[in-house]
Amino acid sequence: MGKWVYLFEEGNASMRDLLGGKGAGLAEMTNIGLPVPPGFTITTEVCNLYMEKGEKIIEELWPMVLENIKIVEEKTGKKFAAKSGLPLLFSVRSGAKFSMPGMMDTVLNIGLNDETVELFSKESSNPRLAYDSYRRLVQMFGDIVLDMGLQPFENELENMKAKKGIKYDVELSAEDLKELIKRYFDIYKRFNKEFPQDPFVQLKMAIEAVFKSWNAPRAITYRKINNIPNDLGTAVNVVTMVFGNMGNDSATGVAFTRDPKKGDKGVFGEYLVNAQGEDVVAGIRTPKPIIELKKEMPSVYDELLKFCKVLEEHYKDMQDIEFTIEKGKLYMLQVRTGKRTPGAAVKLAMDFLNEGLINEEEAILRVEPSQVDFLLHPRIDVSSKLQSIAKGLGASPGAATGKVVFDADLAAKMSDEDVILVRPETVPDDIHGLAAAKGVLTARGGMTSHAAVVARGMGKPAVVGAESIKIDLKERLFTVNGETVKEFDVITIDGTSGNIFKGVAPLIMPELSEDLKNLLSLSDKLAKIQVRANADTPEDAKRSYEFGAKGIGLCRTEHMFMAQDRLPAMQEMIVAETIEERKAALEKLLPMQREDFYGIFKEMKGYPVIIRLLDPPLHEFLPKREILKEEIAQHEKNGEKDLVEKKKRLLRRAEALKESNPMMGFRGCRLGLVYPEINEMQVRAILEAAAMVIKEGDKVFPEIMVPLVGHINEIRLVREKLEEVAKEVISEQGIQIPYLFGTMIELPRAALKADEIAKYARFFSFGTNDLTQMTFGFSRDDAESKFLPVYLERGILPVNPFQTLDRDGVGELMRIAVERGRKANKELEIGICGEHGGDPESIAFCYEIGLDYVSCSPFRVPVARLAAARATILAKRQYEADK
C-alpha cells in the first residue's frame, strides 16, 4: 500500500481512480493556480481497505491525517481546535471516480464546539454566522454520523420558526439559534447519543461516516442503475471551510461554462448572496442568474468568467463549477465535466471541434449513442406531473399519446386520429392497425414478439408484456391497479421506459439538427464497419437511406405477405393440396413481390440489399384455430355454406401445420426444401425486379439469404435449385444481373461448421436473436417475463443477452464462424442482422471480430453509425496502448 493521503497540490486530474473525481478536480485547479481552499484527499484505496478490515484502518490512517492538518494550519494561519483566534474548520466530502450526486455523505463545519463557536462568533464579528454553522454541524452530525435521522432536527427547526412567526431559516437570530442548538442536544439525549466536543473526534468520525456511505442503499442502487462497479470506493476530501454567508460581500453559487441545456456559449448558473451552498439546493431563497453578479460584484464576476475560460480550455470540455465568495474573495470548490442534455452534447462536441479544442475522434467520443437515440424519438417532458398507472417492457423507444382502441380494423378506420392500439397480443392480421396507430400496448409478449419487432421496424413506440393490465375485449376496456380505461380514453405510452400513463403527457418532438447531421457524417468518415438497415418495404428503405444506411442487411419477405390485400393469396398457397394449386397461388404473389423488391432497390440507389427467403412457419399466416372454430360455428348458424367450407379447409390446414415447438420446426430452408416452388417464386421476383432497375440505368445489388441453414447439404441443395432459376431469369431478361447467395448463421451447428457452409455461401449474416435463444436454450418471451429479471438481479447473468451480445458464449460461436468461414472462403462477406446490430456494446464486439457491417432497424441507424465510429476509435486506441 502506497501513499494514503495527498495534499491538493500533490495530485492531478489523471488521478481520478485514486483521488476520486472531486479530489482530482481540486488538485488540478490548485496546480493551475486557481484559488482553492487548502485541504487534502484520503484515497479510494483506503476506503476499500476500510470495507475489508474496519476501524483499525482509521487508526492506521490517523497519524497521516494529523500530519496533513498541520500543513493546512500553516497555509491558512488558523488552528484546528483553536483556543484563540479564528478557528480552522473543515468540510468532509465524498468523491468517487464517477460522479454520484447526492448519493454519499458530506459533513460541514467540522471543528465547532461549545468553545470554538464563541471564538468564531467573536473573531468573525458575526454571531449569527457562528451559531448557524454550529447548528448545521450538530444537525448533520446527528443525522449522518450517528444515524439519528434528519426528521427530529427538522421538526425542532420548524417548531422554532412557528414559535417566532417566521418562514425562513435565515430569519432566525443568533439568540434563536442558540436556543435551537440546546433543543438539538436534547434530541441527542433522547437517542442516548453524545455530540463529541473534541474537534479531532468529530473529524475522525466524519471520515469514517463518508467511507460507510459508499455502501449506503441509495449509493448501491445508483451504482447499479448507472453500471458503476462496486469495488471503486470513495475518496474523502477534507477541505478548509469558506463561508458565503458572512455578509453582503459573500455569496455561493454554481456555474456552467456553457449552457448545459442547449450547448450555447456563455457562462450559465445561479448564486445567492449571504448564503451557504446548501441554501441554493434547498431553495430557501430564489437564486439569481449569474449575470446579476456583474452588477453586485463586478470584479468578482470578471474573475469568475476568467476562471471559467481557463478551466474550459484546460479540460477542453464544458465544466460544472461550484464556487464561494467570502468577503469579496472568490474560491473554487469543485470542477467536473458538466452534465448535459443529448442535444447539448451534440452541439458542444461539434462546437469544440470547430473551435480547434478537440480533434475529430474526440468529438465522436463526446457523444454517447444513447444520446442520439434519445434525440430520434418523441419523448415525455420530464416536467410532466402524470403518474404511471402500469409498466411493461419498453420494446420500441419513443413516446406516443392517443385514444385507446382495441382492434386493428378500428385503428385503421381512425387513421386520421391519434390512436394507441391495445391488444392482449398482436398477430400478422393486425398489421394495418399497427401501421395506423401512433403506438402499441400489449398485455403479453416480449422483446421479439410480433408487436415489438414490427413496431421497432416502423419506428413506433411499443410497450409489451404489461401483464398487470387486464383487457376485456367484450366490454372494450382494460383495468389496472384499480384504474379503468375505456375505449377512446386517452393514454400515453413510453416505449423507452415501458411506463403507461392515463391522459396526455407533454411530448417533445425530435428534430435532426445540423450539428447531429455533421456528427454522423464524421462518424461515417471514421468508422471501419458499415451500417445497414433492416427494412421490409420501400418506405422502410427510403427512411433507411435518409438515415444514412449503406444498404439493407435484412429484408424479411414474410412481412410483405401480412398486408390485408396479400394475406388471402398467401393463405390460398398454404392450403393448396397440389403443386399446381400452390404454383397458381404463387403466381398471384409474384407480381406483388416483384413490385416490393423493385421499390426497395430504387430507394437504396445501388447499395446492397439482402433479402431473406420465407422463414416463419406457414401456420403464422393462418388465423388461430380457436378463432376459425368460432367463425365456422357462426357461419353454420347463418347458413353460409361456402364460407363454412372455406373456413373448414383453413382449419384442417392449421391443424396439420400445428407444431409443438414452431421455432425449431418446419420453417426456414426446410420450407424451401419441401416446397421449392416458394423459393423459386421469390428468387424470380427478386431478379426480375433487379432487371427492371438495371434497364432503367440504375445500379442494383441483390443478395439472397437462405434462412436457418444448419447443414452443408441444406444450402447446397437449395442453392443448386435456385441457381437454375437465376440462369432462367438472366436468359429471359437478356442482361447480366449481379447477385449473391448466402445464409443466416442462427444455429450453433452452422457456426461450428461454417467452413463447410462457406463453400456454398458468398455471405454470412448472424441472426443473433435466434442464435442466442438456441445457444442458451431460452425462449426469449418466457425468459424475459419469468426468470431473466431474477438472473440479472442476482448477477447470474451480467446483462440481458437479448439486448447485448453474450461475448463468452454466443460471441465465441460468432468468432469461430468468422475464422472458419473466411479460412474456407476469403471473399466471404459477414455481417449481423439481429437486434444486436443496433446495440453499441454489441457493435463494438462485431468490429472486434472483423465483421463487415451491422444491420438494425431504420430508426437505430444513426445510433449505429455513431457506435460504429466509436468502436473503431476505441479499438485503435486500445491497440496503441497495448503496443
Your description of this structure?
This protein is of the alpha/beta class and 883 residues long. It has five domains: 5-240, Dna Ligase, domain 1; 251-337, D-amino Acid Aminotransferase, Chain A, domain 1, CATH 3.30.470.20; 377-508, Glucose Oxidase, domain 1; 547-617 and 666-743, TIM Barrel; 619-658, no CATH class. The chain is built from 34 helices and 33 strands. It has an eight-stranded mixed beta sheet with strand order 14-24-23-16-17-18-19-15. Strand 23 and strand 24 form a beta hairpin. The protein is elongated and about 110 Å long. The mean pLDDT is 91.
Briefly, what is this?
The protein has 883 residues and is α/β, with parallel strands linked by helices.
How would you summarize the topology of this molecule?
Layout: E1 5-7, H1 16-31, E2 39-42, H2 44-53, H3 56-76, E3 79-80, E4 87-88, E5 90-96, E6 106-110, H4 116-124, H5 127-145, H6 151-164, H7 174-190, H8 199-213, H9 217-225, E7 234-240, E8 251-258, E9 265-273, H10 277-282, E10 288-289, H11 293-296, H12 298-315, E11 319-326, E12 329-337, H13 342-354, H14 360-365, H15 369-375, E13 379-380, E14 388-391, E15 393-396, E16 399-405, H16 408-413, E17 419-423, H17 431-436, E18 439-442, H18 450-458, E19 462-464, E20 470-472, E21 477-480, E22 483-486, E23 490-494, E24 499-502, E25 507-508, H19 514-526, E26 530-534, H20 538-546, E27 552-556, H21 567-575, H22 579-604, E28 608-612, H23 625-638, H24 641-657, H25 669-674, H26 676-695, E29 701-706, H27 712-733, E30 740-745, H28 748-752, H29 754-757, E31 763-766, H30 768-776, H31 780-793, H32 810-824, E32 829-832, H33 840-848, E33 853-856, H34 861-882
Parallel strand pairs: 3-4, 16-17, 17-18, 18-19, 26-27, 26-33, 27-28, 28-29, 29-30, 30-31, 31-32, 32-33
Antiparallel strand pairs: 1-2, 2-7, 5-6, 5-7, 8-9, 8-11, 9-10, 11-12, 13-25, 14-24, 15-19, 16-23, 20-21, 21-22, 23-24
Helix pairs in contact: 2-3, 4-5, 5-7, 6-7, 13-15, 13-19, 15-34, 19-34, 20-22, 21-22, 22-26, 23-24, 26-27, 33-34
